[in-house]
Amino acid sequence: MNKSSKSLIGILATLLLALPDMALAAATRPVFDHLTTGFELTGQHRIVPCESCHVDAVFKGTPRVCVACHSPGSRIRSTSKPATHVVSSENCEQCHATSAFVPAAHFDHNEVRGGCATCHNGVQAAGMPPGHVPTTLNCDSCHKTTGWQPALFDHSRVMPGTCIQCHDGVSATGKNPQHISTTNNCDACHTITVWTPVTRVDHAEVMGSCTSCHNGTTATGKGATHIQTPLECDNCHATTAWQPAQFSHAGIAPGTCIQCHDGVSATGKNPQHINTTNACDACHTTIAWTPVTRVDHAEVMGSCTSCHNGTTATGKSATHIQTPLECDNCHGTSAWRPARFDHTGIAAGTCIQCHDGVRATGKSTQHITTTNACDACHTTTAWTPALRVDHAEVLGSCSSCHNGTKATGKTANHIPTTQQCDNCHMTSAWLPARFTHDGVVPGTCAQCHDGVRSTGKTPTHIVTSASCDACHSTIAWIPAQFSHASVAPGTCAQCHDGVSATGKTPTHITTTASCDACHNTTAWIPAQFSHATVAPGTCFQCHNGAQATGKNPQHINTTNACDACHVTTAWNPAVRVDHSEVLGTCSSCHNGTTATGKSATHIVTTFECDNCHITSAWQPARFDHSGVTPGTCVQCHDGVRAIGKNPQHINTTNACDACHTTTAWIPALRVDHAEVLGTCASCHNGTTATGKPPTHIATTLACDNCHVTAAWLPARWDHTGVVAGTCAQCHDGVRATGKTPTHIATTASCDNCHSTIAWLPAQFNHANVAPGTCSQCHNGTSATGKPANHWLTSLECDQCHRTTAWTPVTHRHLSPSYPGDHRAAVTCLDCHTTNRDAVTWRTPSYQPDCAGCHAGDYRSDPHDKTLQNVKYTVSELRNCSGACHVYTNATLTTISRTRNGPEHRPSGGGF
Fold first, then answer.
1. 700: how many CB neighbours lie within 10 A of its CB?
2. How far lies 447's CA from each of 143, 455, 467, 468, 472, in Å?
């Protein structure tokens, strides 16, 4: 048994002897320096019962690694990783402290297993915010584990066409004002490495016309020699290259061909070309020069024969009429035929020089025997119909033509005669025919006028044996001269019975009187009728429009008492109008046509005349406003015909009844603001009408921006037209609600945080807050400030906190003396022992090296300097992460064992 074993047995024996005393001491928990075991108890390990780790009083071999205890199935029953724990290594101490699992004192991403998104999913840890770039990349493709910002962005896996979601000019650089008008697909032209130079332009993404870019400034435009055209580039050019170009004449302005086809820019006219203007498209198509599909003679210069000479173009044929005239005197430019011949210059009677049946159409074999003066009968427009026959040019007798074949002959009922036509008829027309009865023996008319050879008595002729010439003349049958001289008075009806001679018509007045009681023997009309014995009011018995003249369609609608207005001597003029006999409304007569109507200056009204006027005279009239059409007052009340608006009247339309009544002008019972012209202030100026009170908000707006015409209150205030940033001009606490005494001290305008709908909730935007000025508001009075247990620091809030929420705290150690995050369970107070942002160095002489805090932890035994058991000092290894080589001897010239470091690091689990 060695010495150490004896010592251990001695210690155990002593402990066994002391067990009663230890049981007594358990109540007082004597302090055992666990550090002497080489495993210091910290945090929660200080207060757990010893038997929690030393199960069954087994002290030796108790695990010192967290996972040996904090895992399922361990002999030591302690808290293990929950199912929702981040997938990580088993080095608990790299993130957690012994004081508590939550919150984790620090986080070492080197211990995490799996992709970033397994934690940074917005549940276990902060994930992509709403405005994050859409991407399937893992977080560490762009971000570092020390902080989200700055981020190194890799565009390689950004979805095509989504550039604008970041490059919108806010999240990231967007299109500048001079950028081509395009869609937002940046990657259609730009690469992901750099904006310029643009390696390509995808014209499918460009918006607007070609010339919006290709203007010679933004992009290459038309060259100095380019064809003049208003067409867009893509009518001819492709987006891949300018050449080759596909030229379309579709958009070329007619008549502008020569601007290109001048023999230089493009093919022009050859030397043999017809002398024309330069309007190529007058004859040629845009497909090919030849064949020429048409010749627009309006574009040809010079005379017809300069082309139509039989060489350049078709000329006169061998049989053409001999003439020095130009072609266009007879021919059109569309075709030779039909030709229009202008006979204007042809001498009268010379037609036969051409119209001889050889050179031009002559007389047919059936033609009337005449001289050769064609124009005596025919016109120069057409042979037929012949509009006239000049009988002076006809040869032979009348019947040689008027035989019923060549020309009209005697009709079947013509008087039998062997006389030539011209004995009775003229050459101008058959009728009237001149027949002379001079040689006819009186009383022999019936030899011809027998109803066969010539007109005889009609069936209704008066029965008589007298010869025709007893009543009729040889000039015409009618009028006939009949002598009633020998007719006995009162015997008219013996002839005038409607059979032998004209009798009473069906509408004749019913009477048994003889015709000569009213009529005379010279004519039926006028008839002399005596109304003397007619009973008053019975006119209509005759004047019913059937027996005698009645009321015409235009007659006033009245009863049938004609003599109420008319006299028996004549219908017109009517000497009076008895209105008691008139039926219907006044306006049915007084319409300006039947009878005097309203004058041009009459009041506009739908009332009948008798509402104001009486039947005896127009004036004086009694006026009733009840029938006046609303809104037409001014037609009378114009200051001339009736009282109008005075000079002090409000500027309004002319609808008097919008405010006034028909009983009196004053008082005006209402004001219809819809009829008022001009601005509100033109009346509401404190004189004409109520204006703004002294306490009114200072404004140049018209009243109706806020007030309605029904009442001043309640007023609706519309902030729409208020210039942003001018809220305080009203909201000053006097004219309108201003800032409360507890309001944040700020010079910002109200609309920076508040809306025009309500003060609360207020949307405060920290975006414009200058970094480092948080405490100006977050002072515990104006806004939430530091709590009582907050560590003492002069740092501004935004050094650790975000503007979206106070927690989680995102503090970053910016001091160059900060060695890095410690994986061991180090709390802030382990270094900041005075609860201040300044570190209290345990060994100030070694700051800022590791030894500044860990000089007391240094153990020289493991730190050999030479093989002769010479040890490094704290000062030599003050930077624990440095190299510490083991040398062969004190000369330090030969390294026996190399330790290149870092031997120790802050992120390590222990020394």
1. 5
2. 140, 11, 10, 11, 15
- How far is C-alpha 800 from the geometric centre of its chain's CA atoms? 52
Which residues have a Cβ under 8 Å from the Cβ of 188 and sit 6 or more positions away?
161, 182, 202, 204, 205
Q: CB atoms < 10 A from the CB of 204, how many? A: 10
Element containing residue 887 per DSSP (H, E): strand 886-887
**Could you tell me the two tokens for 259?**
């601007």
199 Cβ neighbours under 8 A, 6+ residues apart: 189, 190, 191
Residue 628's SS3 state is: strand
Tokens representing 63 are: 């695990």
Q: Where are the alpha helices (DSSP H) in 420-492?
A: none
Q: What is the mean pLDDT of residues 564-577?
A: 84
Residues 420 and 399 sit within 8 Å (Cβ to Cβ): yes
Whether the per-residue pLDDT at 27 is higher than 60: the answer is no
Our CA dihedral for 586, 589, 595, 600, rounded to 10 degrees, sits at 60
Please return the burial class of 139, using the count of CB atoms within 10 Å of its CB with bins 0-12, 13-18 and 19+: buried
User: Hey, what are 564's tokens?
Assistant: 């109420």
Output the CA angle 777-778-781, nearest 5 degrees: 80
Q: What is the residue type of 591?
A: N
Q: Beta partners for 897?
A: 886
Alpha-carbon distance of 890 to 265, in angstroms, equals: 98
881-899 pLDDT, tens per residue?
666 788 888 888 888 887 7
Do residues 603 and 612 touch, judged by C-beta distance below 8 A? no
pLDDT at res. 251: 74
| CA–CA gap between residue 133 and residue 165 (Å, rounded) | 7
Which pLDDT value is given to residue 253?
82
Do 62 and 844 form a contact (C-beta atoms < 8 A)? no
Report the distance separating Cα 904 and Cα 911, nearest Å: 6
- The mean pLDDT value for 614-633 works out to 82
What are 833-838's contacts with CB under 8 Å, separation 24+?
Answer: 834/792, 835/791, 835/792, 836/791, 836/792, 836/793, 837/791, 837/792, 837/793, 837/794, 837/795
Is the previous residue joined to 103 through a cis bond, with omega within 30 degrees of 0? Answer: yes
Nearest alpha carbon to residue 181 among 193, 173, 189, 191: 189
DSSP assignment of 378-416:
--SS-SSS-----GGGB-S-GGGT-SSSSS----TTSPP
Tracing tokens 């920076």 back to the chain, one arrives at 752
**Burial class of residue 668 (count of CB atoms within 10 Å of its CB; 0-12, 13-18, 19+):** middle
CB-based contacts of 882, cutoff 8 Å, min separation 6: 901, 902, 903
Instruction: Name the DSSP letter for residue 868.
Output: T
Other CB atoms closer than 10 Å to residue 746's CB: what's the count? 15
Digit-coded pLDDT (tens) for 858-887: 888 888 888 888 888 888 888 876 667 888
Most confident of the following: 75-79, 96-100, 125-129, 211-215: 211-215
The CA distance from 566 to 80, in Å, is 131
Q: From the centroid of its chain, how far is CA 669?
A: 45
Which letter does DSSP use for residue 603 in this model? Answer: P
Q: Which residues of 496-518 are buried (b: 16+ CB within 10 A; e: fewer)?
A: beeeebeeeeeeebeeeeebbee
DSSP state letters, 556-581: --B-S-GGGT--SS-SSS-S---GGG
Alpha helices in 66-220 (DSSP H): 66-69
Q: What is the pTM assigned to this prediction?
A: 0.27
The contacts of residue 451 (CB under 8 Å, 6+ apart) are 457
Question: What stretch of H or E contains 4?
Answer: helix 3-17
3-state secondary structure of 97: strand
State pLDDT tens for residues 384-396: 888 788 888 888 8
Residue found under tokens 């266009």: 328
